[in-house]
Here is the input.
Amino acid sequence: MEHVSCNLCGGSDLRPVYEQPDTLFDINDWFSIVGCARCGLGFVNPRPEPEEMTRYYPPEFFSAFENSGAHQNRYAAQAALLAPTTAKANGTLPLLLDIGCANGDFPRFMQARGWRVEGLEVSPNANAITDFPVHRMPLPELDFDAPRYDAITAWAVLEHVHDPRAYFNKAAKLLKPGGQFVFLVTNFNSLSSRALFNEDIPRHLYFFTQDTLRAYLADAGLEMRNIYFDKAIFEMTPVNVLYYLWAKLRRRKLLWRETPESRHLYIQRKELARGMGATLRYALTHPIAAMDRCAAMLYGRWQIRRKSYGIITVAAIKPVP
Ligand SMILES: [Zn+2]
Here is the structure.
């Protein structure tokens, strides 16, 4: 484990925000999440060092990608954020780099829509990709710096990396003037991220807000053009909102130990097969948690309307000098 200062402003005045264990793989492994008093960036601190991270990404983590052919709606929503493709006067097609491309389904989706594509993926668990180039290293380690891409995308990637600043800076270098950097992260200004334990700890190491993202972009020489708070691409259902309200009524901060056992952990503990039967059993044995799931769906809609949803999508541009 390593202690770090703020990746955005270098500050070391860090305030505790909450603590929770790794609810996906090891319920006894606890982490502290802090906020930088100066700039508002959130992060896990202390945190596992980069070499230690593989144990938090067991092969089961990647099995979610396996039937990613089913995510065509998501890819269409992602593609809609990119400016339409137009071949250059000399006939070359625009070039896209997708950071964290997993099995390559999104780049493949874009390839079918008139883009040349490249991927970047650090996980050795991701399947082999043979139909376009894939860089097998973290973005900052690419050994070229010249502007090359018309667009760079990163869907739910930047919250996983150890040095977000290096990613923003490298993306800025690799974009051609006028090129787009489009990415999705979680929203540390949302109740979901700050107080409801909806983040995937410790796979998520950094927690961003509109202001901290704007600062990262500006430092890298990029401009934020659009920001969206919605579930068009990924959802973050604000589960535990009823428990939060109950704690608030008693003027207390909700602790992770006071939240109900998740459906995921219940199914694991009871060794049930996933499906409607297991969900029903969970609802019958955890009636308040089941009510909370309904409240969370309603509250999620309200968050979207109030621009306080747990997911932020940003379209930024490298200005033409
Ligand atoms: Zn800071």
Observations:
- The chain has a mean pLDDT of 94.
